[in-house]
Amino acid sequence: MAFVSWNCRGFRNKSSELKDIINSYKPACIALQETYIRDNDTVKIRDYSIFNNTSSSTRASGGVALAVANDIPSSCLHLNTNLQAVAVRMHIKSLITICSLYLPPHQTVHQTELDNLISQLPQGSYASLQVLKSPYFYN
Question: Which superkingdom is the protein from (predicted)?
Answer without folding.
Answer: Eukaryota
